[in-house]
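WARN no homologs supplied; continuing
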Amino acid sequence: MKIEDILMGRRVRQNHALEHATFTILAQMNPNLSGGARSFSDGFVVFGNANPVQLRQAAEEALRRLQEGEAELAIHPNCGTNLSVGISLLTIGTLLGLAATRQRTRIALTAASSIAGWAMARPVGAYVQKHFTTLPDLRGVRITDIVQHKVLGAPFTYVHTVQE
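OK structure emitted
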C-alpha cells in the first residue's frame, strides 16, 4: 500500500469515482447485486463473486461515461464516506448534547442533535464525496486488466487502471 492510498491522492479519488460509476452500472445490469469495493492508486477491488465479463463491461462503460462528463456517476448513495460522515455527525451531536448542564436538557439535546446528525449523513456525505473523496476527471485513465483472486476462499476482483 502506498502513502497516496491512505491520503486519498488524485489517483485514488479518480479510481473511487470509477468504482462508484461501475457499481451504478452493474446494479442496472443486475438489480440483485450486493457487494463492496475499495479504491487504491492503481485501481479498485470488488469484494464478492463478481462476474468478470459484466464487471469489464460496466467498468469500461463507466470510464467512457465519466470521460464524457457524467460526473454525477461518481457519487454513490451507499458509499462508505456517507457512513463515516454519519458516524462523525452523530458523535458530534451526542457530545454536544452531553455538554449541557441540566439532565433534562442534556437528554433532549443529545437525542435531537443525534437525529439531526443521522438525517444529514447522506447529503453531507454526498458533498464530501463530490469535493474530497472522488474525482470524476478521468482524462488519460484506462483500464488495463481485471483479475479475479481468492484469499482463504473469499473471492475478490481487482480492476487495474493506469494514468497515461
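The longest strand covers residues 141-151.
OK
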